Amino acid sequence: MAIKEEQHKPTSDIYILGIESSCDDTSASVIKNGVLLSNVTAGQAVHERYGGVVPELASRAHQQNIIPVVHEAMREAGIAKSDLSAVAFTRGPGLLGSLLVGASFAKGFAQSLNLPLIDVNHLQAHVLAHFISQGKPDEQMPEFPFLCLLVSGGNSQIILVRSYHDMEIIGQTIDDAAGEAFDKCAKVMGLPYPGGPHVDRLAQSGNPSAFRFAKPQIKDYNYSFSGLKTSFLYLLRDKVKENPDFIAENKADLCASLQETVVDILMKKLKLAAKDLNVRQVAVAGGVSANSGLRKALVETGKKYGWKVFIPPVSFTTDNAAMIAITGYFKYLNHDFCGLGEVPYARINYTF
């Protein structure tokens, strides 16, 4: 009887509920006609003591968080379940256990309300976060085609974006991602998890030229960060032998030099791709796009080469459901739905 009372009612407005659960953040968001109404996220502090995300603990926390997070997102949006037009969820890539929680909830929720279901590629959603409207009159969004540098803990890619539904990965890391390099180098310095923000903070007072680290020579637009990590580790090993207090005495300079190296590696390939493809609309996305050094480099490079640069608000750089909802909105307009039989995938799906 309760299910019948919540049956979907046709409306001229399009309300998309987005659900994100790819890693350790449980998030829900509601978007109306492309405009953000709510974006609620519950983090998981339990992983800090382990220095990284523990998949089993992450999936258990998602089970605890998902119902209250969705409830709060609906409450903040000021709508009833019967107002929803569709439910969008992160299908992958990500931690399989975490993805299963979000996907299972989305399927059950959509089926109970007789709503269309939309599966979303997590990486595509990061790119389309640039099209989330907050209803402000001065909002600017990229024009097609544009290049997007997607950098996070698990991915470092250069993507040529031709439309909401047509994206091509033209360059990517062949081993570790930029965010992973930040986190692992931070860990060996004894910094808390996640290490990236701590590196950024300490780098503000450090000398970026104090130390030199290895920079890879990779063909085309691809990246590599494993050599940088090894170079960083070896420097610490040798210096600590000479001075046991080396890390504590040089932490700010180490962070500044590390950040400078990572940003330089990222920008070198991005500049090459923009030149070769003659693209002057350039965006950045993903968790590492919150890094102040990278943001500064993008702005300065944009001025030098005449790029129009798009940098998302920090709240849209990390994993969030707003980017899932906006991607779901564009897929809804394209009548791109999925069935209940679609299963999550842990590995990167390179087909957008």
Share of helix among residues?
A: 40-55%
- Proportion of strand residues: 15-25%
The CATH topology of the largest domain comes to Nucleotidyltransferase, domain 5
Give unreliable regions as ranges. 1-10
Topology as H/E string?
A: HEEEHEHEHEEEHHHHEHEH
Content-based structural category: alpha/beta
CATH architecture level-2 label of the largest domain = 2-Layer Sandwich
Major sheet details: 5 strands, mixed
At the first level of CATH, the class of the largest domain is Alpha Beta
How many H/I helices? Answer: 10
Count of DSSP E strands?
10
Catalytic activity: L-threonylcarbamoyladenylate + adenosine(37) in tRNA = N(6)-L-threonylcarbamoyladenosine(37) in tRNA + AMP + H(+)
Pfam families: TsaD
GO biological process, one term: tRNA threonylcarbamoyladenosine modification
Protein name: N(6)-L-threonylcarbamoyladenine synthase
Describe this structure in words.
The protein is built from ten helices and ten strands. Helix 5 runs parallel beside helix 7 (226-242). It is an alpha/beta fold. The protein has two domains: 2-134 and 317-333, ATPase, nucleotide binding domain (Nucleotidyltransferase, domain 5, 2-Layer Sandwich), CATH 3.30.420; 146-314, ATPase, nucleotide binding domain (Nucleotidyltransferase, domain 5, 2-Layer Sandwich), CATH 3.30.420.40. Strands 3-2-1-4-5 form a five-stranded mixed beta sheet, with helices on both faces. A five-stranded mixed beta sheet has the order 8-7-6-9-10, with helices on both faces. The model is unreliable at 1-10 (pLDDT under 50). The chain starts with a helix and ends in a 19-residue tail after the last helix. The longest helix is centred in the C-terminal third of the chain and has 32 residues, at 246-277.
